[in-house]
Specification:
By secondary structure, the chain is of the alpha+beta class. 39% of the residues lie in helices and 23% in strands. It has three domains: 71 residues, no CATH class; 151 residues, Immunoglobulin-like, CATH 2.60.40.2970; 63 residues, Collagenase (Catalytic Domain) (3-Layer(aba) Sandwich), CATH 3.40.390.10. Belongs to the peptidase M35 family.
């Protein structure tokens, strides 16, 4: 029996040399192991140990490196808001710049979500205001937008940002927010910090900014949202169609007409009722002249 075991007492040097190349074990170490005089059972144990533990170690190492590469390649960004003025005397002067930085090492393909700070063509609620740490927020007077991320991806409506690249988006907030309900004072202006990234496989992925830095602006003077004839022009511009069928265009035009009629009726009612009424309180709460004026202006088309 001992004679049957002796041939495997020491693994051949050539075979161990192959292990050296595959797993990075030093050749001199291999030679020392191969030349060691030991009992047959110990040599057999060493051979099994090399053949089992080294492949397992190599596999675990490869898996760790693969997982590490996935973590390193994860997309990442930061978003910040800045203002050229630390204080403004009117909402009409409320202008900010949103800055997005690709802080990862993967190219970002962000959909041009009109509800995000990237949607500069739309007066959407893409900012959040905090006054002295409270939850009090100015009234939103802008547009609510329904859009399709799938369609946006299909028509390549996205912004590509290279690693370490910075992109800026300027926003005029004068017509979007009404501060009359929260009053003057210092506000922190935060950008909506969640975006939609199209990954390398073409799938939409929700991506939240790792860092979000607000702007600090003190509001004063006229606090009501600005209403100008430009708003009507923008509303007319929104009625343009993109890849709509004739039936869909008809439905949209009918909806616009109906909405305009309802707004006109509400405006006429408010203009002719300058004191409290059950209808007013049901919709807008306790009556006061300043609030009534704001509500009336909101329905002016």
């Amino acid at each position: 029996m001992r004679g049957d075991v002796r041939p495997t007492q020491r693994p051949p040097v050539a075979e161990l040399a192959n292990l050296s190349e595959e797993f990075g074990v030093g050749r001199e170490s291999i030679k020392r192991v191969a030349g060691t005089r030991a009992k047959p059972i110990l040599s057999l144990s060493l051979s099994l140990s090399l053949s089992l533990s080294l492949p397992m170690f190599a596999g675990a190492l490869a898996l760790s490196l693969q997982l590490a590469s996935l973590v390193v390649a994860a997309p990442s960004l930061s978003v910040s808001v800045s203002s050229s003025h630390a204080s403004v005397n009117s909402v009409n002067s409320l202008h900010v710049t949103a800055t997005i930085i690709n802080t990862g090492n993967e190219i970002l393909r962000l959909l041009n979500d009109p509800s995000s700070v990237m949607g500069t063509s739309w007066e959407t609620n893409s900012f959040r205001f905090v006054k002295n740490g409270s939850d009090a927020a100015p009234g939103f007077r802008g547009a609510m937008v329904k859009w399709s991320p799938t369609l946006a991806a299909e028509i390549n409506a996205m912004t590509t940002i290279e690693p370490n690249q910075t992109v800026e988006f300027d926003h005029d907030l004068s017509t979007r927010y009404d501060f009359s309900n929260v009053g003057a004072g210092p506000f922190d202006i935060h950008a909506q910090d969640t975006f939609i990234h199209i990954d390398q496989a073409g799938n939409p992925v929700s991506l939240k900014a790792a860092v979000s830095t607000p702007a600090s602006v003190t509001m004063g003077g006229s606090l009501n949202a600005v209403r100008t004839t430009v708003r009507s022009a923008k509303f007319a511009k929104r009625a343009k169609f993109n890849d709509c069928s004739a039936a869909q265009e008809t439905d949209i035009n009918n909806a616009v007409s109906a909405a305009s009629s309802l707004a006109t009726a509400a405006f006429n009612y408010l203009k002719s009722h300058t004191t409290t009424t059950p209808r007013y309180t049901n919709w807008f709460g306790t009556f006061d002249s300043g609030r009534h004026s704001t509500v009336t202006s909101n329905f002016q088309v």
